[in-house]
Amino acid sequence: MANLNAQIPSLKLNDSTSIPLLGYGTGTAWFMSDSGGGIDRKLVDAIKTAIKLGYYHLDGAEVYNTESELGIAIKESKVPREKLFVTTKVITNIKDIPNAIETSLKKLQLEYVDLYLIHSPFFASSDSDLQSAWAAMEKVKADGKARSIGVSNYLLPHLTATMKTAKVTPSINQIEYHPYLQHGGSDGPLLSFMKENNIATSAYGPLTAVTKAKPGPLDGLYADLAKKYYVSEGEIALRWCIDQDVVAITTSSKEERLSDYLRAMTFKLTPKEVHEISQVGGKKHFRGFWQAKFDEDDPS
User: Fold this and answer.
1) Which are the catalytic amino acids?
2) % helix / strand / coil in the chain, to the nearest 5?
3) pLDDT tens-digit map of 91-104
4) Pick from 117, 173, 118: which is nearest to 147 by CA?
5) Helices H, strands E: what count in the chain?
6) List of residues 6+ apart from 261 with CB closer than 8 A
7) Position 29 pLDDT exceeds 80
8) With a threshold of 0.85, does the pTM exceed it?
9) What CA–CA distance (Å, rounded) separates 109 from 44?
10) Dihedral sign, CA of 47, 210, 277, 159?
11) H/E element, 260
12) Which of 42, 75, 79, 211 has the fewest CB atoms in 10 Å of its CB?
């Protein structure tokens, strides 16, 4: 286990909120299909371990059914609220966002969240649905219940529709993002639009190329870079995001692994290495989430 006191750097969003570039996620591996089964102490303890190690950016969602555990862990950690950056997302109760945020805050035992996201755009059957939901999000921010508001899994048509009537620009779009799913790359239509409008990118599944998408064209390059920097391939994958100012969300129940991930804060890839990973990664397409919404070879 790495013996580090590594500081996680932050990124300033378009509303001047600062978000840590590495976050601890309470979805995927922790997802609970039913919130009626009582408190999962294993998850509470895992979150407390993450906080102890310095993961102050905590990423949750109502659909994960883990907000209660996240709230308990925050309370038991005794870390001052202002040091934490807490994200949650709405989708289950998307038609009643005012009630949804109140329910989430009650479970989290918080007065506000730092970031509130619409979890996906696929609830909408029209541009009007997207615009109405975003207007409700703007009210959440205006009421002080979220310091920053954004979206998740939005593609270019969803963002352009939202922006037509938005009074507040989304601060961030959390998407599946890794070298095998770059959404057309930094010059592609989605990321270019986000850059032009100062909408930050957050990546879930940032370790995909070194986990479930193996074997792949990046295997040799990741191994060489891991050897060069005396870290694991996972830390190279995280650093590829961070060096592009992309917020990376990861998770683990293992303290050793979480500690090791912090080694990603101790080095930087060269611009050439970042470019090479992107270039080689573009030779393979792999989508780990929302496959039913996309054609098999759709890179958007």
Assistant:
1) 64, 119
2) 45, 15, 40
3) 999 999 999 999 99
4) 117
5) 10, 10
6) 22, 234, 235, 238, 250, 252
7) no
8) yes
9) 14
10) negative
11) helix 255-261
12) 42
